[in-house]
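note to self — DONT lose this again. spent like an hour looking for the file last time. sequence + predicted structure for the chain T wanted, 302 res
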Amino acid sequence: MTRVERLALAKKRVVRILRTYVVATERTLEQKISDAGPTNQRIEPFVLTQARRLLVGEGRVIEQRRGKTPWFHLSDAKPELIAERFAELEPLYAATQDGGFSVRLGQALEVAVYKALSRGREVFLGGFSDLLAHDDSHLYKRIDPPRLLSGKTIEKGPLDYIVAQTGCAAGLEVKNYRTWLYPHSPEIRELLWKCSDIDAVPVLIARRIPFITFRLLNLSGGIVHQTYNQLYPAADAGLAQRVKHKNLLGYHDVRAGNEPDARLLKFLCTDLPQLKEAAKPEFMKYRDVHLAYGKGKIEYRE
């Protein structure tokens, strides 16, 4: 499809989803439009954002802010129905944004990666020291990998994990976000900066990664892995079930627990050792560019 065709299709889908959901956040629209349908017909979030802005500009869609969160509904939706849906959805969405929950949410995927790495044969740095001491209703004690590796210092701060097999290190960043990470995202810049400092192959593990980010990293010595799931702590299984409900937030990909699935195990234990060896020469070719981009000395277009 051409860009114009994709934009038109995105507008139609936004209207259709809002007819069903009445009110929705950007994340629900992404889940129902960017994560759904045949692969060749999916609308990436940046196109979805453009379509949504056009609809707001045309007056067909109303943007309503509740706190820091923008919600969207059709201009012809009945006020009493809008109020009813806000009363139902707003407390549920607020629960997913709670500060204490958000930190434990981030740890859920970090723990899954740690458990997967522990089953492999690679030497790695970083992890958790008290996984057997309590459940995930409380934060686990995280031990970051060192910022100094083979005489080279990570200026920006620690990576989530460093796979430190002799001769070819890889730096891992683990992001249990609903948002898709584009090349201009701070998380991408920081990953490239940190890995360039210690000459480690950058590895990004996230729920969803758009093609443009995959292309950027894949062609310049980086590695990406999409989990296709957002992990919730097992202690919040009830919340996970509610956000998955098709008539509520519709996050059908949420999974409770921090055990690695078969795809993550295969990636970290079987694929990564070979992938990082193959990626290292390309990464070193572009290392100086990665470092400059990570530090903000050059922009993405450059």
